């Protein structure tokens, strides 16, 4: 029976500043570092051992993974970074303060952009300082693949090929896997794993730094789900 642990990165500097982050590469806040380390301590306390680690190409998720593995004495575990586990791309909202955006467009519109399953935020322009089209970490991608905006539906379509090609085969081979990623990429995975409806996924929250542990049978059916806390 294989296990999969999902961890949303610890609080980031822009979480703290209440900004739309998306694919912008920001660091962990001091609290975020402590959350990531605490996740590792909980993992160690529960005796969880990993064979493979995955994360995004964004600093806040990478550091969360490393802190968690280091605190659980497993920094040596093989890891793979992929853009497919990046946070949802918030388009033209990236870099904006959430409260200021709500004041400008209205609370209802911003809530729809943030929480609707299939409504897209405004697209980001390629010449914006918050665009990723010229970011070196995506240089090997077809420029048309780099998002200009995403909703959770699009984010799920982006994440699923990585699940199918890497994560699921690992689990079927009996490996235990840890993924440190982002609120929306992990919500997308959770939607698939638990077969959550389009409507109900909007109510799912992922706490920063909280390990969520799934146990699977040999057909990848979930036999147990546990959230680790102090």
UniProtKB/TrEMBL annotation:
NCBIfam families assigned to the protein according to its UniProt record, in alphabetical order: pgm_1, PRK14115.1, PRK14116.1
Similarity remark: Belongs to the phosphoglycerate mutase family. BPG-dependent PGAM subfamily.
Family matches, as InterPro entries: His_Pase_superF_clade-1 (IPR013078), His_PPase_superfam (IPR029033), PG/BPGM_mutase_AS (IPR001345), Phosphogly_mut1 (IPR005952)
Annotated protein name in UniProt: 2,3-bisphosphoglycerate-dependent phosphoglycerate mutase
UniProt enzyme class: isomerase
Active site: 9 (tele-phosphohistidine intermediate), 87 (proton donor/acceptor)
SMART domains, A to Z: PGAM
UniProt xrefs under HAMAP family: PGAM_GpmA
Known EC number: 5.4.2.11
Record has Isomerase as a keyword: yes
Organism per entry: Lactobacillus melliventris
Record site feature (Transition state stabilizer), residues: 182
Keywords: Gluconeogenesis, Glycolysis, Isomerase
Protein's gene: gpmA
Pathway(s) of this molecule: Carbohydrate degradation; glycolysis; pyruvate from D-glyceraldehyde 3-phosphate: step 3/5
PANTHER family (alphabetical): PHOSPHOGLYCERATE MUTASE (PTHR11931)
Record: residues binding substrate: 8-15, 21-22, 60, 87-90, 98, 114-115, 183-184
Catalysed transformations (reactions): (2R)-2-phosphoglycerate = (2R)-3-phosphoglycerate
Function: Catalyzes the interconversion of 2-phosphoglycerate and 3-phosphoglycerate.
């Amino acid at each position: 029976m294989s296990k999969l642990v999902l961890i949303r990165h610890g609080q980031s500097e822009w979480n703290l500043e209440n900004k739309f982050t998306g694919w912008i590469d920001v660091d962990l806040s001091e609290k975020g570092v402590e959350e990531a380390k605490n996740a590792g301590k909980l993992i160690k306390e529960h005796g969880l051992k990993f064979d493979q680690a995955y994360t995004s190409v964004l600093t806040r998720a990478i550091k969360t993974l490393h802190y968690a593995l280091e605190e659980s004495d497993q920094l040596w575990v093989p890891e793979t970074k992929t853009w497919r586990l990046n946070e949802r791309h918030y388009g033209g909202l990236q870099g904006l303060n959430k409260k200021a955006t709500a004041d400008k467009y209205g609370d209802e519109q911003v809530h729809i952009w943030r929480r609707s399953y299939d409504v897209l935020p405004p697209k980001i322009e390629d010449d914006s300082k918050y665009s990723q089209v010229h970011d070196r970490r995506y240089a090997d991608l077809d420029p048309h693949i780099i998002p200009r905006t995403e909703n959770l539906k699009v984010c799920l379509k982006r994440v699923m090929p990585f699940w199918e090609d890497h994560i699921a085969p690992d689990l079927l081979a009996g490996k235990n896997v840890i993924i440190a990623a982002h609120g929306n990429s992990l919500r997308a995975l959770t939607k698939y794993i638990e077969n959550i409806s389009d409507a109900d996924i909007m109510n799912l929250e992922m706490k920063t730094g909280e390990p969520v542990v799934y146990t699977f049978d040999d057909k990848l059916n979930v036999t147990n789900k546990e959230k680790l806390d102090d």
